[in-house]
Amino acid sequence: MAKLLEINDISLRFAGVRALTEVSFHVGRGELFSIIGPNGAGKTSIVNCISGRYRPQSGRIVFEDRDITRHRPRDRAWLGIGRTFQNLALFHHMSVLDNILVGRHHLLKSNVLTGALYWLTGARREELAQRARVEEIIDFLDLQSVRKAQAGTLPYGLRKRVELARAMAIEPKLILLDEPMAGMNLEEKEDMARYIVDLNSEFGMTVIMIEHDMGVVMDISSRVMVLDFGKKIAEGLPEEVLANSHVKRAYLGEEDDVLTSPDDAPARETAA
């Protein structure tokens, strides 16, 4: 499988605190790659480094054979990297439709002049094409009934879905999902898991996901990496990671082989 993303010996510090220490891994094109670990393990820090929110003190981030370690976040969006946030970052006063349209601003070719001559240039055609693409995303995520509602008035589970829609609107090659199912009930989690699998298989997006629900992680992931105190302690197929004694000690606080299947994970998970 061709490599889409390579992380080489990334280290990140905040004053005297080491958030990440020489973390290396790669993600193949078309994979659904999950990152797990206890609180403070460095999961969001590594996603922030990939998206450009943080700049590591050492190491390299290579995307499609291009070193993007020093690229700005907007440049990474241009290259095809999108993300959602652990804490929702929607424009609450705007409609669902407008929130999703924001995700396509970097794809617009119209400028101030062509916008002023909206009816005489290609600006109108371009806007209609962008809106048509957004409507496809709305249909995919079953957001038709709330498309004109203010984002801030929606239930939490729907707002998480709108944030996923906005990230999809970027048309990323790589989408970073930071706890996409946090705070959801069982039905909402099942729906979100289905959407993530479908955007990976049907839309062809490579996915890096941080998620605490071990049942979901083990069920839908191609491979899994485990972080603990900013260091990688395991990486491999879900069943390999599940059987790893270091993972049981660090992530689950267990040494005995008591976690026997993905279905057991949510009930026994001790790290949030």
Give structural notes.
- A hairpin with a 2-residue loop joins strand 9 (223-228) and strand 10.
- The two termini are 32 Å apart.
- Helix 3 (96-102) runs parallel beside helix 6.
- Residues 111-119 and 256-272 have low confidence and may be disordered.
- The protein is globular.
- A 6-stranded mixed sheet has the order 6-7-8-3-9-10, sandwiched between helices. A 4-stranded antiparallel sheet has the order 2-1-4-5, with helices on one face.
- It contains 11 helices and 10 strands.
- The protein has 2 domains: 1-80 and 174-180 and 206-272, Rossmann fold; 89-171, no CATH class.
- It is α/β, with parallel strands linked by helices and 272 residues long.
Name its key features.
disordered C terminus, 4-stranded antiparallel sheet, Rossmann fold, 11 helices, 2 domains, 6-stranded mixed sheet, 272 residues, 36% helix
List the helices and strands and how they pair.
Layout: E1 3-14, E2 17-28, E3 32-36, H1 43-51, E4 58-63, E5 66-67, H2 73-79, E6 81-83, H3 96-102, H4 112-116, H5 123-140, H6 156-169, E7 174-178, H7 186-201, E8 206-210, H8 214-220, E9 223-228, E10 231-236, H9 238-242, H10 245-251, H11 265-268
Parallel strand pairs: 3-8, 3-9, 6-7, 7-8
Antiparallel strand pairs: 1-2, 1-4, 4-5, 9-10
CATH class of the largest domain: Alpha Beta
Helix content: 25-40%
Low-confidence stretches: 111-119, 256-272
In the CATH classification, which architecture of the largest domain applies?
A: 3-Layer(aba) Sandwich
Strand content: 15-25%
| Record field, number of beta strands | 10
How many domains would you count in the coordinates?
Answer: 2
The number of helical elements comes to 11
Q: Mind summarizing the main beta sheet?
A: 6 strands, mixed
**Radius of gyration based on Cα positions:** 20 Å
Give the SSE order as H and E letters: EEEHEEHEHHHHEHEHEEHHH
Q: Distance N terminus to C terminus? A: 32 Å
For CATH, the homologous superfamily of the largest domain is named as: P-loop containing nucleotide triphosphate hydrolases
Globally, the shape reads: globular
Q: Any idea of the CATH topology of the largest domain?
A: Rossmann fold
Structural class: alpha/beta
Overall mean confidence score, pLDDT: 86
Q: Strands of the largest sheet, in order across it?
A: 6-7-8-3-9-10
